[in-house]
Amino acid sequence: METKKIVIIAVGGQGNLLSSRLLGEAALSKKMPFVISEIHGMAQRGGIVESAVLLGDVSSPIVSAGESDVFLGFEPLETLRGLGKCTRKTVVITNTTPLPPFTVAVGQGSYPPVDEILDQLRARIDRVIAFDGTALAAEAGNPLSLNMVMLGALIGSETIPLGGEDVKNAISTSTKKAFLDSNLKAFDLGVAAVR
Amino acid sequence: MHKLLTDAPGKEMLLLGNEAIARGALEAGLSFSACYPGTPSSEIPQQFFDISKETDLYFEYSTNEKVAMEVGGTAAVCGLRTMVTVKLVGLNVAADPLMTLAYVGVKGGLVIVNADDPSMFSSQNEQDNRYYARLAGIPLLEPTNAQEMKDFTVSAFDLSEELELPILLRTTTRLNHVTGGVVLGELKPGKSKVVFQKNPSQYVTMPANARNMHKVLLEKFDRAQKIAEKSPLNQIIGDGRWGIVTNGVSFNYVKDALSDLGIAHKVSILKLGFSWPLPEELCLKFMGQVDKILVVEELEPLNERELQALAQRKGINKRIEGKGVGALSRLLEYNPGMVRQAVAEHFGVDCPMPELPDLSGLPDLPGRPPNLCAGCPHRASFYAVKEVYGEDTIYPNDIGCYTLGIAPPFNMADFVICMGSSVSSACGFSQATDQKVVGFIGDSTFFHSGITGLINGVHNNQKFTLVILDNGTTAMTGYQINPGVNTDPLGVDRTRVSIEDIVRGCGVKDVHVIKPFKVNKSIEAIKATKAYDGISVIISEEMCALFGKATKQIKKARPFYINHEKCKNHQICVQKLACPAMYLDGDRVEINKDLCTGCMVCAQTCPENAIMPLKG
User: What CATH number does the domain located at B560-613 have?
Assistant: First the structure.
């Protein structure tokens, strides 16, 4: 089968690893071959967390420069920083709400305006899907459900061979019951934001 | 019930590589496990810690890797199937017992899981621990994916008992943190207590005994080699005339490269899963069926050199290359694109290159390095010490979250090489210079290897201050217990050892216990150490904010805000603390109330008392 290489970039605490795991559960339930990798370690202390989800007949657990089919960015600055994983044909899906790094607060650099970040992305990528995922997570009733919003957008973009029901089943069986309703709502809002 | 205890042979489960290893151990009838935690291996013992609460499995976080190897090695000598997990540099600490444990041999299977870290995602070097199998004379197994991490673990226990030798199961970060579908096998119950059979001629390594044991070890090595020749863990895949020899995660990159380049039918792969002792007959067979060979292995060119030496010995004149082909180097981890290009270059085929985006013209992007968390007590300790000791003091630091003291505004890590080095290097700095020296070490790292350095400093009349940052957990590797931790909230019953008693027992006379969130009192104590002529120890006690919250040991405090009527915008708070809960809105400091833990440290630095608790 055709392979799909998905790169997910987020800031520590945004729930990147759960989102890649849910894609894995969805693939497993469909008996679709997959492999996932993630980088933990010092990245968890407010740094960048990167994961890769590869679907189809592929064994390597990572994505080399310029080889992602879909790039999911939970934070606009980190989406721009991760551009090296993309080509013009990569579908880039990004949240637009900034989470400024502490270096900005102590005067080591400034955070570029979000509009400029999006312009830079669109100048280099044919299909950029940008929306305020943080606001949708809040609308779903839980600011921590940004990862579900972004998963929804990924499925809504119809770029990977997994459907909404596959991922929602994984959300139902693999996330905490107390957050299930807000997670599913966040996922649906993410799907709708793209369609 | 813990998910790894799922009794469903044949079921395919989504597992992290490290979880797959833990499951493999349970399918092999694991009875005993000991380790000191180290990323990227730390999720393996985390499973055992939890599972030991609901089964007869014995698990301990030992004080350090040497202790773990001795505790675990002894259990295996007694006849229990045992796993010891280490990160690459942890095996250095455990190397002393390992070398001689190989002489003594084991009765129950002993599997040492070693996690190497090419690219140094969370380590201080990228040494290649395949050397240790050679140094100790023990077999080396190298899985390539999550399923094999489980299956090879089961094989490793059987092999260990067959040869009565410890086995090194070697992984790398990419494999430890890969997630894949793993088909489960049957769980096998472990044993509980056994009876130790005395045999001094085997277990007491006096020279007269050890001379014989070395001979026995070499005989076992020969047997191991014969097993490797026939082992299903080693495979020749394909029958093309172009040869590729590979191991570990690189096998996946090779497989994908051949499919991407459309040359799978022209290639033979020798996949070395049981790579030491080298299966020489199998390698010779492989050399016979190919015209030239590319060796794809991360880090050191070990297989490359072995194969070149073997070919030379057998008079085989075929090109065997590895390092230096394309971008294959001894530095950092490999990746699929890099391996594809090297394969294409070596065999002279075209390799389509992805069209990378033009990154020129991008604005300067502010960095996002890892940082001490909001409410981290280390920040308060660094701040107070800096206020007293300033810029010119030498600050040896150690391995833990607090290595992040290297970042501005603190710049308080001047020398870090290994666990415990803060203390012994403070001894060295105090002798080699006349500068002031203040070392930083965490609670767990102090137990691990800080104590001997401290005794050394007392004995040799050296002069420095040591700050022991006691945050009540082994935070960096994921909140493991250590001898200083109150283990009750974690559901286990372990005796707590007092750091203060140890420090005084080492002969330190000037000892101060501070609460770093009480800034002025802390500064007074630190000033006293600066005036003291000798070794001072400050024990800075405050629980890790994340661990305390997760285990409900810290009550949620009121977040703080900036009262702009009082604030005169000195920005001392943000400039001196760099707390991630603070940010600049225009040119004014604000506090993110969702991140603020209410530690009150910033409030104590404000000359205008403008940082105040939120009401309501």
Answer: 3.30.70.20
